[in-house]
Amino acid sequence: MDIQEKIRQQIAADPVVLYMKxxxxxxxxxxxxAVVQVLRRCGLKDFAAYNVLEDESLRQGIxxxxxxxxxxxxxxxxxxxxxxxxxxxxxxxxxxxxxxxEAGVLA
Length: 107
Ligand SMILES: N[C@@H](CCC(=O)N[C@@H](CS)C(=O)NCC(=O)O)C(=O)O
Ligand code: FES
Fold this sequence. Notes:
Belongs to the glutaredoxin family. Monothiol subfamily. This protein is of the alpha+beta class and 107 residues long.
């Protein structure tokens, strides 16, 4: 399967999808760790996470998919949200919590 099609399916399969370096329990970059921490602070228990360090085609493919040059990348309900800076800003403004509530993944 084409990598862009694979990404499309991954993003459609779960309400919250994070492309990151490492895993939620063992992030291998501070930017990825920051997004995981913010999601947990929002009260999110579970989300889909893909480790781009285990798949070079995914690491490159995800940059093309969103036309965004860096990892991490967060998607909510199929929509690209942003990387660590944007996620942090949206958390501080409360916008991220709103999006997660709308997605039905928060209590
Ligand atoms: N300011 C970015 C920081 C992320 C970033 O700079 N990521 C770099 C280093 S981890 C990256 O993905 N570089 C390309 C690569 O490693 O493939 C954000 O808000 O997410
Ligand atoms: S791996 Fe070095 S900044 Fe992310």
